[in-house]
User: What shape does this take?
Amino acid sequence: MPGDFLLFDSHMHTPLCKHASGHPSEYVAAGQAAGLDGIIFTCHSPMPNRWSHAVRMSPEEFDTYVALVDEGRASAPAGFQVRLGLESDFFPGMEPWLKELHDRAPFHYILGSVHWHVPEYRDAFWHGDIHAFQRQYFAHLAESAETGLFDALAHPDLVKNADPSAWNVERLEEVIAQALDRIAATGVAMELNTSGVNKIYPEINPGPFMLSMMRERGIPVVLGSDSHNPSRVADGFLSALDVLETAGFTDIQVFANRRPEPVPIHAARDRLRLAESYVG
Assistant: This one.
């Protein structure tokens, strides 16, 4: 399909994380069928001392991960790009480990995550008060941006799933605003993650209220499906683009060599609709 921009799904995994399925070549095929120009693999980073080891590759598997992405790239048709990325967990004190890890391969994109549900995170920061836990999460989200380790921040209101009954974004508006002010000052992007509709709090991450706050501060957005199987590549992208446009965004970002490239929302929508018409 013609065009002078590149539309990507910038968040997906491999079986090395122990909770995803499908060879990278299958994600490539799904991305091409969806009308994308490419995909970025961002499997969960290895961490030291068996930290959260049940849901990520081991440090010894890092080279295997890079080789798997290479296999996906080798399977891609001409013109379809496969880029190497990583989803790295932010946890206070892990900065030296992550900096060294990010220098080990020619990454195009590093996605930072605060995974509140990881046992080690809960052990450190859950003290029985859900509202304090939510505030701590957003403080860590801002701190992760300030490290300079990440290009974008993944599913930035993920903590709403910790206790859906206690989630009230308006009540947290001041806390979120303070975090977003800090993030905006760094220039780090934030992700719109379409997998949120499948979680216990069924809403994109972040939801429309927080997206509008991000737009007010000029924080750019990267689009990712968080695919853990090939069938979810680009899932929900058309509706996500509509939500972004309603919030006032005019483009999304794709990263190459750790640098952002703009993709106009109207052109991205046309590309996806054209692919849908081919399938139909």
Observations:
- The chain has a mean pLDDT of 96.
- Residues 130-146 form the longest helix (17 residues).
